[in-house]
Amino acid sequence: MFLAVKEILHEKLRYSLIISMFVLIGYLIFILTGLAQGLASQNTEVLDTWGAKSILLNKDSNTNISQSMITNDQYKSINMNSKDASVAQMGVVVKSKDRSQVSGSFMGIKTDEFIYKDLKITEGKKSIKNKDVVVDSSYKNDGYKIGDKIKFNSSKTEFKIVGFTENAKLNIAPIIYGSTDNWSTLRGMGNTVVASAVISKNDKVKFSSDQLKSYPIGQFINKLPGYSAQVATFTFMIAFLMVISLIVITVFLYILTIQKLPNYAVLRAQGVPASILVKTTIYQSLILVIVGLLVAVILTAITGLLIPASVPIFFDVKMLSLVSLGIVLTSLLGSLIPVRTILKIDPVSIL
């Protein structure tokens, strides 16, 4: 360890450039990981807020809540309890005279069920009576505020924003909470169709109709449009970056080892064991990557504070810690490759 630190302090410029490379690699991986988690969380954050463990849909809906319709007769076959709540969903375009149009998801809920009861309001009041709606706080970024009158799609009916709530997005679309009666009116379904799905905090919803099917929430999430492809894309990008970082680390350490062969030969001739030189190489690799990661963490934290709220990015300490550990292990693996060169040093031939 002493020899590794001494050498780094002696060759400040050289090792500063190598640390800079580790900083850029770590920073890029951290940002991509944050973007991946941010986009993934916007697909599922409302399900996490609800504490959903299972979902009941029409069996012919292809596990898609937008295509699911539960009729009145089917709904009567469901054994609802305090941990179950019906939702009536439809995609909408939010319109206002003084605001830009924004896509969203209208979510009809009932006041006597847990979704409404557990709804946390960050501004305004909690109400879905008459034409009141509670919307996701992301609508503030588009200029919407408490008291605004809005319309949906081609409907002429005006609704009033009375409250904002956090973490209310499903498949990236921000949610507008309203009553199921208003959903029926907007969709023009009358009283035949009463819901799109039943969300449950239990592992399975109890029902008797053969037209319905209960799914674990994980299976439903994987079927969200674009979700699996998005997660797979970011996973491969991060994995390729890890492989690239392994190659870069190995190349740099190998070049450094070749450049230091005369020095190592002198040390070997003076009786320094090869194991000491191997440990020095490994310690140098660990010191360089850890210092680089610490700087990358600081840059990532600053980015998190400065990045606009509209950018879907989320930094999870546990996930970033695992990624950091992966980079450290990668650097350790890369440092082992030049070891063979060190072990084969012949002091006489080098000198």
Succession of helices and strands: HHEEHEEHEEEEEEHEEEHHHHHHH
Radius of gyration: 29 Å
Q: What is the overall silhouette?
A: elongated
Number of helices: 12
> Distance N terminus to C terminus?
25 Å
Structural class: alpha+beta
Number of strands: 13
Major β-sheet profile: 6 strands, mixed, barrel
The proportion of residues forming helix, as a percent range, comes to 40-55%
Q: Which sequence of strands runs across the widest sheet? A: 3-4-10-6-8-7
Beta-strand content bin? 15-25%
Overall residue-averaged pLDDT value: 85
Low-confidence stretches: none
How would you summarize what this structure contains?
This protein has 351 residues and is of the alpha+beta class.
Descriptive overview:
By secondary structure, this protein is α+β, with helices and mostly antiparallel strands. It has 12 helices and 13 strands. The protein has helices at residues 2-10, 12-50, 72-76, 114-117, 180-187, 217-222, 227-259, 261-269, 274-306, 317-336, 339-343, 347-350, and strands at residues 54-58, 70-71, 84-96, 99-109, 123-124, 132-136, 149-152, 159-165, 169-170, 173-179, 193-195, 197-200, 212-216. The strands form 2 sheets. It has a 6-stranded mixed barrel. Strand 3 (84-96) and strand 4 form a beta hairpin. The mean pLDDT is 85.
Indicate the topology.
Blueprint (H helix, E strand, L loop, with lengths): L1 H9 L1 H39 L3 E5 L11 E2 H5 L7 E13 L2 E11 L4 H4 L5 E2 L7 E5 L12 E4 L6 E7 L3 E2 L2 E7 H8 L5 E3 L1 E4 L11 E5 H6 L4 H33 L1 H9 L4 H33 L10 H20 L2 H5 L3 H4 L1
Parallel strand pairs: 4-10, 6-8
Antiparallel strand pairs: 1-12, 1-13, 2-11, 3-4, 3-7, 3-12, 5-8, 6-10, 7-8, 9-10
Helix pairs in contact: 1-9, 2-7, 2-9, 2-10, 7-10, 9-10
